[in-house]
Amino acid sequence: MAELVFFSGTMDCGKSTLALQMDHNHRARGRGGVRFSRNDRAGESRISSRLGLQTDAVEVMDGTDFWEEVMLRRTKGQRIDYLICDEAQFYTPEQVEQLAKVVDEIDVDVFAFGITADFRTRLFPGSQRLVELADRVQVLQVEALCWCGRRATHNARTVDGVMVTEGAQVVVGDVDMAMDAAAGTPAVDHGPVVGYETLCRRHYMRRVTAHGATLMGHQDPLLPFEVDACLWQGSGGTSASGS
Q: Count of CB atoms within 10 A of residue 66's CB?
């Protein structure tokens, strides 16, 4: 029987790579499917992996109706056995419900891939609905790493290498941008470099990015690094009182 499966993980853990691999495997067995994505790093109507793989996809918009997308293709004689839905965290809750309907009513498998929580550790609405409705939620086993070497559990947004916790929920960027800022590479233009970085919980809570750790490594801290990192002004923190 068809299933709605949500493959979840932090950035940089191979979600899009798995999406492309699953699409390849199903097509190799004669199954027909459609690839969907939204706000991919490679641009509109693409699914891309950081390993360099990419392919075309249908861009999901606010008005996209998955039930209509499937029925229109079937009406034209196209075989639809499964859907690959990448960047599913950006889908609306209503679109996730449409995906569940596609599974239940016309027996089409749906494989959704996405991040569970945003840079503020709050659930994306689409991911929350997927957790609520999916037949299975599978956390990917490929571990993204924090700059310290620990397993990364949180996605952090950075501006010029400094972690931020306020702003719009959706701002498209990539981990490569954050790493460029951490290395001190200047931006192509003269505006702020917005990127993302995966951090362990310890360094997420203390707001210490790779860029911040590099700068602190060139200083002589008066207190132990792990104790006082959250008070360093370059970490993006506010103050000891949290005000």
A: 25
Query: Per-residue b/e over 174-191, b at no fewer than 16 CB within 10 Å?
Result: bbebbbbbbeeeeeeeee
Q: Is 87 a catalytic residue?
A: yes
- For residues 71 and 51, the answer to whether their CB atoms sit within 8 Å is no
Task: For residue 172, give the 3-state DSSP assignment.
Answer: coil
Series of mean pLDDT values for 10-residue runs along the chain (243 residues)? 94 88 96 96 88 92 98 97 97 98 98 93 95 95 83 86 80 55 49 85 89 71 47 45 36
- Please tell me which residue in 59, 68, 87, 226 is annotated as part of the active site: 87
Burial pattern 218-243, b for ≥16 Cβ within 10 A else e, equals eeeeeeeeeeebbebebbbbeeeeee
Query: Residue 205 to residues 17, 120, 121, 170: CA-CA distances in angstroms?
Result: 29, 10, 10, 21
Q: Which amino acid is at 127?
A: S
Whether the full predicted model's pTM is greater than 0.85, yes or no, is no
Integer Cα distance of 173 and 157 in angstroms: 9
What is the phi/psi pair of residue 47, to 5°?
A: -120, 120
